Amino acid sequence: MALVTMSYNFRPFIQAVGSGPHTGKNLSREDAAQAMGMMLSSDATPAQIGAFLIAHRIQRPRGEELAGFLDACDRQAQKLPAIEELVTVLGCPYDGRSRTAPVTVITALGLAVDGVPCLTHGSGRMPTKYGMPLIDIWQGLGVDWTKLDRDRLSQSLRQHQLSFYYQPNFFPAAEQLVAYRDQLGKRPPIATMELMWTPYDGKVHLVCGFVHPPTEGLFQTALNLRQQTCFTTVKGLEGSCDLPRSRPAIIGQYGQAQGDNHNPEWERLHLHPIEYDLGGSDVSLESEPGYIEMLQQTIRGDNTPLTPAAIWNLGFYLWRCGVSGSLQQGLTTAEQNLSQGRLMAKVQELRHYVC
């Protein structure tokens, strides 16, 4: 009887988002949080969860609803304990990369080298894309974050300025929703929510990657509702926070990523890599073992096809995070740190820490 009662409690949410363009209704932030909470706790039945996710995808979520989803995750997830500094969180699609070679890990390493605490997060292989996830890239470098508990991961942020949050270890309620992605064959709205997800209890500079321009508006609405005072949006490669080299980088900035971040303002940037002699084709992800080998070579300071993308991305983020006074200075610092092997030294430091 209890399960029947709970399923009846969830039914109005399906009726609201699944009634079509004429009679359908959007959820309030509070109702969206309740709906997500019931899905995470399995108070909704599997049939209801599947129906809600596909109906909500067809209707398209609003920023208010995504804010509610994030509220529910805040209540149920085991987040990393806070440290004193502002942490840059790089939000990338959990279902990974399949077409272009990622440089996200290089960006994270480079920020850490210059004293900017950086957190990446994700899961294992995930539908519908089943692309290469960040955890596999870290493990390819010999850094297995899955072995550490939350306190050790938070300590890594404090001592080494870098850490990784592995969802299966600390948020199993969200992990049990992964099966629905495979069964539905489509990304549900929670895939958009993940790009804004911050599995950390302190102050953050949040970086969100996206593909479709309307998604950026959802980010702005949801994050403003959640009083996120510092964030960056990037029309990145495959929805990641990796800046492309084959086209101008379209970036939105809100707030300051260092120092006083009160009274934030929205700023639009169009950065042309060709103006910095860094334009060119984006490196294809032809094979994962080949990519890991190229990644290791790049981090060691060798000149590889991935090196220009590494410099372009790291240079921008050093500028955005206040380490460098200009984009050109950031690019110069990025090139020097790569060529001098400082990123590889950070990898070796992390390998020792996680052992």
UniProtKB/TrEMBL annotation:
Xref: SUPFAM superfamilies: Nucleoside phosphorylase/phosphoribosyltransferase catalytic domain, Nucleoside phosphorylase/phosphoribosyltransferase N-terminal domain
One Gene Ontology molecular-function label: glycosyltransferase activity
Protein name in the entry: Anthranilate phosphoribosyltransferase family protein
Classification of source organism: Bacteria, Bacillati, Cyanobacteriota, Cyanophyceae, Oscillatoriophycideae
Organism: Phormidium yuhuli AB48
Positions in coiled-coil regions: none
Residue ranges of domain Glycosyl transferase family 3 N-terminal in the record: 13-74
Alphabetical list of InterPro entries matching this protein: Anthranilate_Pribosyl_Tfrase, Glycosyl_Trfase_fam3_N_dom, Glycosyl_Trfase_fam3_N_dom_sf, Nuc_phospho_transferase
A Pfam cross-reference name: Glycos_trans_3N
PANTHER family registered for this protein in UniProt: ANTHRANILATE PHOSPHORIBOSYLTRANSFERASE, SLL1634 PROTEIN
Mitochondrion among keywords: no
Keywords: Glycosyltransferase, Transferase
Signal peptide (residue range): none
